[in-house]
Amino acid sequence: MSENAQSGRRTPSTGLRPVKRFKRAAPVTGGGKPRRPKRTGWRRLIPTWRMSLLGLAAALLLGVGLFVLGVTLVKVPDAHAAATAQSNTWLYADGSVITRTGQTNRQNVSLDKVSPAAQHAALAAEDRNFYHEGAVNVQGLLRAAVNTAKGAGTQGGSTITQQYVKNTYLNQKQSVTRKVKELFIAIKVDATESKDDVLSGYLNTSYYGRGAYGIQAAAHAYFGVDASALNPAQGAYLATLLNAPSAYDVATATPAGKQNAVNRWNYVLDGMVKEGWLSAEERSATTFPDVKDPQPNPGLSGQTGYLVNEATQYLTSNQVISETELAKGGYTIKLSIDPARQQALQDSVQAQLRDTLNPDKRKKDAAAQAGAVSVDPKTGAVVALYGGVDYVKHYVDNATRRDYQAGSTFKAIALAAAFENNAKTQDGRTVTPRTVYDGTSGRKVRGGKGTPYAPPNEGDRSYGQISLQQATDWSVNSAFAQLAQDTGLQKVKDTGIALGLPGSTPGLDPVPSIPLGAATPSVLDMAGVYAALDNGGKQITPWLVQSVDREGEAVPLPAHKTTQAISTDTANQVTSMLQGVVNDPGGTGWRAKALGRPVAGKTGTTDDQKSVWFVGYTPELVTSVALFGQDPGSGAQVSLSGVGGIDGAAGGQFPAQIWTSYMKAALKGVPVSDFQTPADGGDSSGATDLPTAPSSPSSTPSTGTGSNGASTAPAAPTTPPGDGAGAGAGAGSGPTTPAGGSNSGGGGVTSPPTAPPATQQPTAPPTTRPTGRPTGRPTPSTGPTTAPTTQPTTQPTGGSDTLTGAGANAG
Fold it and tell me: What is the rounded distance in angstroms from the CA atom of residue 289 to the CA atom of residue 270?
């Protein structure tokens, strides 16, 4: 400041002064609001809540806009064009045509022509809230879309409106795009059509199986009535079929499929009661309806129907194509079936079995039902399949049914389990082919819990002390029951599953009878198990469909996974032992030696001779053959004894003869090769593995039991076992000496014939049995040049081939 001289006042100076910088105020700690510091580093990447809220609002607006745009732009397609079915073409592996299918039975009716009971049954099965909900089940749709994108397969949850749209306007392909289209079209349909119209359309476009589209066609196909006459029981059954038409067709389904159908039927009826559409009194009085047999389809006669049916099951069970979409047609499906081998299998069954039967003279012959499957062990491809006499006459596929016991064909699994798990006898010795077991009939198994299991051998015959190899050749139950206990019953079951048996196989339980074949796998299942043995322990689930395309576009198929189920040496060791079943002149499978190639296999004959088996293989091919006894009227399981005029039945008879005849034709021109040799050389004829404190061998069959289960050196029985089936869980009813084949069981002669058979089996058996297994393997030059063409007039004596104990005989 300067001072004015005249006035004495102070005035501002005109000189410039430096600007004073203000410091940032310190944060207020009192009632004032502090300033938020700037975000630095990675925090700058996180949006603020304001930005998040604005983004969410924008996304919702965009979503609503796109949804409105989608509903506006998507047009409902022409229903009639989409609902027109085409034919499917089924091909053999070489491209030749098996058949064409695709006949469609469709007749639309208005909703008032459908009984209220049938309407309510469909709602109870598929969409109980139909009349009270919108077009789309959002939760179910999202779940289906997510699971489809993840490859988890077809998922439920669609409303009836969505299903109607899918049936009428779209294909059944499981994709996100199709689901989105389904959503938009369903919303438009729901907005433009009444609920009654949608329900009517759904019932008229749904596929019920047997070529029937719509409830009117289904009512006639299954019950021979109009849709207006359907009662609650019938309506509930048709509603059940919507879930899985072929699998729930009780006229053709497997026992498991029939039970599943009944369970679903009960679910539908219970739902009707819950919704008030059926009274509790009516529900309790409702019984399962009688269902008509399917009408013959000429295009599926002979073996064709079995091939098409099995391929269809493969495609639908693996969720490659839904049954509804397949019924619409337009697919070309190539199977793995070799037409030459398929014909050879049919011819072999005809020549070796069908031509010998005369149901007019022998009523028993009408009970014989044959099933067979041939598999390439290296790839798992099914190259031939025989399902029965004729698909249009016998709809149940004998090659894939799971209701007959496997018998002693299961003993191969018991051997694999023992070797794979280094099983030890009760006195601590490692089990080998030379391990000696007590073959006394009815011998109590040692080492188990509870009441000791004591299965009889065929004919209640005792073998004394025999090696495991001999017990395999002759199919001795008492020895194998102890072997399973020494191995561990659960390990035997687990090995069977590892080799390819489904875990759900009926009767596949870790019980003392498991090695004797109380389980009921299919012929196809057992072919897969033996294929794993033939393939060095590598398991490949057998498959039938080679390729699928529709309108030139390939449909993806599941990969054929290979799993090392058991070690290669275990597989080779079991194969070596199963060769003894054929090479041993007293072995139960001696007839298969006529093939003139290295053969490994096992026979099986089950309780009361209701089924007989032979599963055998060469290094190139595996074939499983079984004969089942089924009453042609009631469908009940019956004994095969007397079929073909033969007293008794055995796996070493018809099944082994069919197998040999087929394999000769199937392998014609294929170079002969030998099996891989196991680590121990595969010779089981040397010194036996004795227990630590053996007793003196006896020259007669033993009547006691060794304290360790695996006992002393072998002494052959003075009388060889008959070729017959045992008497079940109790003592056998067969004679103590062989008599004219009255105890048929797949057996074999006790020493080889002096000359190989030409056109028939020897008429009289030798009287002695070898004490060891032959060491040589067959070659083409030593085997018979032709397969037996007739049954022997007198059945040879030989090994037991029947499964006994716990509801099954030894085999």
Answer: 16
